[in-house]
Write a structure and sequence with these properties.
Blueprint (H helix, E strand, L loop, with lengths): L1 E14 L2 E6 L2 E7 L6 H13 L3 E2 L5 E3 L1 H6 L5 E6 L21 H18 L3 E3 L6 E16 L6
Parallel strand pairs: 3-6, 6-7
Antiparallel strand pairs: 1-2, 1-3, 1-8, 4-5
Helix pairs in contact: 1-3
């Protein structure tokens, strides 16, 4: 599975003019299931996201995770958005190929699993809408943007 994390001061997803998910400070998580991925990759990716220390402590050092924000009297939200285009392969020309992405049914299943697991382990989880035409609005804090990948061959 692949993800791109953006540390945000606020973010929201709009579908057909309606806000479907919105957070204040936290992480915008763009996530993509790839062919060969299973729950084990989703679990590893989520564990890494929840523990990644990319929020500042009192000294201004990146030393807190999104979960540490909850303990510091702040609410660290997760806004999870499906984005199959993270699987784009442009090595063969100028038009991206998305053959590395999981099939739509499998992608939805793994996305739904990932969101359910996130809700089980984190207090504030919002989402986009799978396979919808979405507009994502965000204020990237820092900016801090981090790509993550959990290889389907790892376990």
């Amino acid at each position: 599975m692949k993800a791109v994390l953006q540390r945000v001061s606020q973010a929201r997803v709009v579908v057909e003019g309606q806000t479907v998910g919105e957070i204040g400070a936290g992480l915008l998580v763009l996530v993509c299931a790839e062919r060969g991925d299973a729950e084990v990759q989703a679990d590893k990716l989520l564990a890494k996201i929840l523990k990644l220390r990319i929020f500042s402590d009192e000294a201004g050092k990146m030393n807190r995770s999104v979960q540490d924000l909850d303990g510091a009297g702040q609410q660290g939200g997760l806004l999870i958005v499906s984005q199959f285009t993270l699987a784009a392969d442009v090595s063969g020309g100028n038009r991206p190929s998305f053959t590395g992405a999981a099939a739509p049914d499998e992608g939805r299943r793994l996305y739904d699993y990932f969101v359910a697991q996130a809700r089980a382990f984190h207090a504030q989880v919002e989402t986009g809408e799978f396979a919808a035409d979405m507009q994502v609005h965000l204020v990237n804090d820092g900016p801090v943007t981090i790509p993550l990948r959990i290889d389907p061959l790892s376990d």
